[in-house]
Amino acid sequence: MAFNKSLTILLLCFVSSLYPIISPDFFIKFPNHYFVETGTYQGNGLLYALLANFPEIYSLEIDTELATKAQDLFKSFKNVRIVCGDSSCILWKVIKDMNQSITFWLDAHNSSGTYLDKNTSLLDELEQIKLHHIKTHSKAL
Q1: Mean pLDDT in the chain?
Q2: 57 and 94 in contact (C-beta within 8 Å)?
Q3: Host domain of residue 53
Q4: Number of domains, the chain
Q5: pTM higher than 0.70 for the full model?
Q6: N or C: which end of the chain has fewer CB within 10 A?
Q7: CATH number of the domain that 110 lies in?
């Protein structure tokens, strides 16, 4: 089912109000050109990144079903890219050519027990970020 931008934002605001863990105000504190999230889940981080006006937004999700749902939900936003894959392996491929500072929301974790042999990809993600030529990124863990 395709949604327009206004309906998508309204729907996500409703869902996000049920799970108020983060907010756009949090992301506004870390303004960079790029926003990169690991662990898309239901798209709350993407919504907040959109509301914080990041020019380019990437989200990595290991679960194919969740990635596909997010791709459908956010397809009208040309600045949002959902990448399906294990962030502990593909984060570097996503960020290596980015030429400006990045705000990272490192939130990938094993919530279903299906995909990972570890609870979180955090250490692997930090190692990949360390390889980047820009050293002034913002990281929220």
Answers
A1: 82
A2: no
A3: 5-140
A4: 1
A5: yes
A6: N
A7: 3.40.50.150
